[in-house]
From TrEMBL:
The lineage of its organism: Bacteria, Pseudomonadati, Bacteroidota, Flavobacteriia, Flavobacteriales. It comes from the Bacteria. This is Zinc metalloprotease. GO terms for biological process: proteolysis. Keywords: Hydrolase, Membrane, Metal-binding, Metalloprotease, Protease, Transmembrane, Transmembrane helix, Zinc. NCBIfam families: RIP metalloprotease RseP (TIGR00054).
Length: 451
C-alpha cells in the first residue's frame, strides 16, 4: 500500500509538471499562430495509452513516464522528423516565425516551471506556514557524527554562518554546509571559521545522512528506564547524568563516548537529582555500551522548533525567496556532483530512488496516506529542478534551442539546418544514454541493496 501511494504521488507530480511545462510551449505557439501537431503527457514510442485529435493537434498519453512533449510543425525536435523540413517553410511553421517569437515559445516551459514553484511555495507559506528546527535555539550547540567531525565540526559548536551568510534553519543549513566552502561557528566562546573538508562531505553522501550529521547537543536527562538492570541500578527518571567514574560529563555524546569504553563493565554514575548531586555506585553497562535508559529528547525538540506564519502580503515575497533558494541549491549541487574527490555523481538517483523517497503520512493506527504539504513542497522543488535542467544548453533540451536562437538574433542569420539536425541527433543520443545510465544505476542499487 505504501509503495502504491508513493508511485501515485510520483506520477501525479510528474503529470502536473509535464502538462504545465508543455502548456508553456503550447500557448505561445498557438498565440503566434504556429501549428502544434502533438501534445503528449509522457512519451509514446511505438504506441500510446490514449490519444484524440482535436482540431490540428493530437492530444495523448504515452506509456513511458519520463516527461512529455509538444511537436511543433517546422521545428527540429526529438522526433527527428526532418521530411517536412525539406519543403519550403510555411507561414504556420516554427521556422517561419521571427527569432524573438521562437525564443518566447522555447522559454515558455521553464517560465511556467518557475512561476509554478513560486505559486506553490507562496500557498504553502500562506496556508501552512513554515515549521523548522531553529539553530539559534541550540543552547548547547550541535552534536556531530564522525562524518561531521571530518568536515571540521566539533561537539558543542554553535553555527553562526555558512559562506558568510546566517543560517537559522537546520534543515537548510545541513544541505548548505555540504554545498558550501566554509563555516563560522562559536567554539569555546570564540568565533572560528574553517573550510568544509570534502572528505567529510564524501562520507555524508556515502552514508546518506545529510540531515543527521549535525543535530542538537542533548543533555543526558533520563526520561525512562527500559531494562530490568537499569531499573535495579538506582537510577531514576529525571536524573541528569553529570559524571561517570569520577569523570565529568554533561551531554549524551560525552556519556556515549565513556560508555563505549566500558562495555560489559560496572561503573559509578553521578547524577543531579532534586538540585543535588549524588553518586550511584554500581550501574551495569551492557555489551553494546548502553545503560538501558532513554533520554528526554521530546521536550528539547519542542523547544528548538519554530513555526512561522505569513500573511498574504508576506507569503508572496517569501514564496519567491523559497523558489530562488531552491534554484540556488540545485545549481550548487553540481559543485559536489562533479567533484572527483566527493564523487557526488554516485549518489544521483533516478525514478526508482525518487519514488522510494516520496513522503507519506503514517498514522498511529498504521494507516498510510498522502502528506499533502510535503507532496506540494516536493513538486515545487522538482519544478525548479526541471526549469534548471531544461535551461542547460544541450541540444535536445530547451536550453539548446535557446542558444541557437540567441545566436541567430546576435549574428543576424540562422544556424544552418544541417547543423541543427546533427546537434539535435547528438543531444538526443546523449540524453537517452544519460537516462539509461541513471535508470540502470537505480536498478543496480536495488539488486545490491544500496537503494
Amino acid at each position: 500500500m505504501e509503495l502504491a501511494i508513493k508511485i501515485f504521488q510520483f506520477i501525479l507530480s510528474i503529470s502536473i509538471l509535464v502538462v504545465l511545462h508543455e502548456l508553456g510551449h503550447f500557448l505561445p505557439a498557438k498565440y503566434f499562430k504556429t501549428k502544434v501537431e502533438k501534445f503528449y503527457l509522457f512519451f509514446d514510442p511505438w504506441f500510446s495509452i490514449a490519444k484524440k485529435k482535436i482540431g490540428e493537434t493530437e492530444y495523448g498519453i504515452g506509456w513511458l513516464p519520463f516527461g512529455g512533449y509538444v511537436k511543433i510543425a517546422g521545428m527540429v525536435d526529438e522526433s527527428m522528423d526532418t521530411e517536412q523540413l525539406k519543403q519550403p517553410a510555411q507561414p504556420w511553421e516554427f521556422r517561419a516565425k521571427p527569432a524573438w517569437q521562437r525564443l518566447i515559445i522555447m522559454l515558455g516551459g521553464v517560465t511556467v516551471n518557475f512561476f509554478l514553484a513560486w505559486l506553490i511555495y507562496t500557498c504553502l507559506s500562506l496556508f501552512n506556514g513554515e515549521t523548522y528546527t531553529d539553530l539559534t535555539k541550540f543552547e548547547n550547540g550541535v552534536e556531530v557524527t564522525e562524518a561531521g567531525r571530518k568536515m571540521g565540526f566539533q561537539n558543542g559548536d554553535k553555527i553562526i554562518s555558512i559562506d558568510g551568510k546566517p543560517n537559522e534553519r537546520l534543515e537548510n543549513a545541513s544541505i548548505n554546509i555540504l554545498l558550501g566552502d566554509n563555516v563560522t561557528v562559536l567554539r569555546d566562546g570564540k568565533e572560528v571559521t574553517f573550510p568544509v573538508n570534502t572528505d567529510g562531505v564524501a562520507e555524508v553522501l556515502k552514508q546518506k545522512e545529510a540531515k543527521l550529521y549535525i543535530s542538537p547537543r542533548i543533555p543526558m536527562v533520563i526520561d525512562s528506564l527500559a531494562t530490568p538492570s537499569s531499573k535495579a541500578s538506582g537510577l531514576a527518571v529525571g536524573d541528569k547524568v553529570v559524571g561517570i567514574n569520577g569523570q565529568k560529563v554533561s551531554f549524551f555524546d560525552q556519556v556515549s563516548s565513556v560508555l563505549s569504553q566500558n562495555k560489559g563493565k560496572t561503573i559509578s554514575v553521578d547524577v543531579e537529582r532534586n538540585g543535588a548531586v549524588q553518586t550511584i555506585p554500581t550501574v551495569s553497562v551492557d555489551k553494546n555500551g548502553k545503560l538501558g535508559v532513554k533520554i528526554d529528547a521530546k521536550n528539547l525538540a519542542k523547544s528548538i522548533t519554530t513555526n512561522k506564519q505569513y500573511s498574504f502580503g508576506e507569503s508572496i515575497p517569501r514564496g519567491f525567496t523559497r523558489t530562488i533558494e531552491a534554484l540556488t541549491m540545485q545549481v550548487k549541487q553540481f559543485k559536489i556532483m562533479f567533484n572527483s574527490k566527493v564523487q557526488g555523481y554516485k549518489n544521483v538517483g533516478g525514478p526508482i530512488a525518487i519514488v522510494k523517497n516520496m513522503p507519506v503520512n503514517k498514522a498511529a493506527d498504521g494507516s498510510i496516506g498522502i502528506n499533502w504539504p510535503a507532496f506540494w513542497s516536493f513538486t515545487a522543488m522538482f519544478s525548479v529542478w526541471l526549469a534548471f535542467l531544461n535551461l542547460i544548453p544541450i541540444p535536445g533540451l530547451d536550453g539548446g534551442h535557446v542558444i541557437f536562437t540567441l545566436y541567430e538574433i546576435i549574428v543576424g542569420k540562422p544556424v544552418p539546418q544541417k547543423v541543427l539536425e546533427n546537434a539535435q541527433m547528438i543531444g538526443v543520443i546523449f540524453l537517452l544514454g544519460l537516462m539509461l545510465l541513471i535508470f540502470g544505476s537505480d536498478i543496480f542499487k536495488v539488486f545490491t541493496g544500496k537503494l
